[in-house]
Amino acid sequence: MSKLSVVLGNYAHGKALLSGDVAIDGYTVEPVTVEPVISAYRRMIRDLEFDVSELAPTSYLLALQAGVPLTAIPVFLNRRFHHSDVQCSATSGIRVPKDLEGKRVGVRAYTVTTAVWVRGILRDEYGVDIDSITWVVDDDDHIEGRAPSNVERVTDGRSLGELLRAGEIDAALSGNAGTGRAGAPRTGWQATTEEPTLEDGPYPLFADPEVLATDWYLRTGIYPLHSVIAVRSELVQRDPNLPSALYAAFAESKRRQVEADPEWSALPRLGKQAKQIAGDPIPYGLRANDASLRALVKFSRDQGLLDADFPSEPQSLFEDGGEYPDA
Has residue 104 got a pLDDT over 90? Predict the structure, then answer.
């Protein structure tokens, strides 16, 4: 049987696949541990270092546009809402989203998926002119050359959290997309800096983010994607059945985890989101994710990351002919 090197984040619903308890028809899995998994994205896109790897969805779209020989399957291991992501400096004077116009906002890199979702929400829901904002970054994009001219690089080694507390940027995204760490992903990266707290002065842009996120989801059907599974296209050309086999194995690994842990206690955030959307917190497949995929492509186009003629049909983003029943 052929071997597949596979890189995933630490997801309970992927462990049965990594351990071999769930088989991929015709293959054996060689798990590769990369900590943090975000640092594997660049290695996969630039060097095709692994056979199968989790990727950020926007990174995959940009890689597809750039002709990188990767093929995705519609497995989305992680999801998050984003109305809680924008934190404002105590001295910024920001009270409503439109106040962000003309301000300086920190984000790890311009093309990170969280930033694409946040900018899309600000633009479409609140009428914010996102092009008037200076986006301050402290890391490179996985695929270079798509960031606009209103992007500024931190050059003195300080973290976005430090700049936010000092009032040198007016707002920043939280977590791994901004103030939760500093610089490029590396071993121990998630523990390198502390998130600003309310005691430091920063405050959230939205006072009731969960209410707003739930309302947005109910109106739009958009449930932000935060990972996709990509395969080296050479392997798919060699075995056209590989995408369907991989998809079936991921679906079975998830099914077993849900059967053993229906409340999602292994990842309480997903359990919370299941209640928020009254459904499966990580749906796989094309039909179940149609609105979310279309929105991500639209937002990426609106923000100048994807060309105007980039295909918007979700089927075109994945291997043609793959069997992907909702799972």
Answer: yes
Taking the C-alpha atoms of residue 312 and residue 310, their distance in angstroms, rounded to an integer, is 6
Beta bridge pairs of residue 231: 52, 71
The answer to pTM > 0.90 is: yes
Q: Two tokens at 49?
A: 């270092």
Secondary structure letter of residue 282 according to DSSP = S
Q: How many helices (H) and strands (E) does the chain have?
A: 10, 11
Query: Under a CB-based contact definition with an 8 Å cutoff, are residues 8 and 34 in contact?
Result: no
Q: Measured between alpha carbons, how far is 75 from 225 in angstroms, rounded to an integer?
A: 10
Tell me which residue has tokens 């990972």: 227
Of the pLDDT bands very low, low, confident and very high (cuts 50, 70, 90), residue 219 is: very high
Tens digits of per-residue pLDDT, 266-277?
999 999 999 999
| Per-position DSSP letters for 28-86, written without gaps between them | EEEE---SSTHHHHHHHHHH--SSEEEE-HHHHHHHHHTT--EEEES----B---TT-E
Amino acid symbol at 87:
Q
First to last CA, the chain: 26
Q: Tens digit of pLDDT for each residue in 237-278?
A: 999 999 999 999 999 999 999 999 999 999 999 999 999 999
The helix, strand and coil proportions of the chain, stated in percent and rounded to the nearest 5, come to 40, 15, 45
Residues 186, 141, 134, 166, Cα dihedral to 10°: 0
Distance CA 182, CA 298 (A): 29
Phi and psi at residue 169, to the nearest 5°: -125, 150
pLDDT digits over 28-85, tens only? 999 999 988 888 999 999 999 999 999 999 999 999 999 999 999 999 999 999 999 9
Beta strands in the chain (DSSP E): 2-7, 27-31, 52-55, 70-73, 86-88, 104-106, 134-137, 151-153, 171-173, 203-204, 228-232
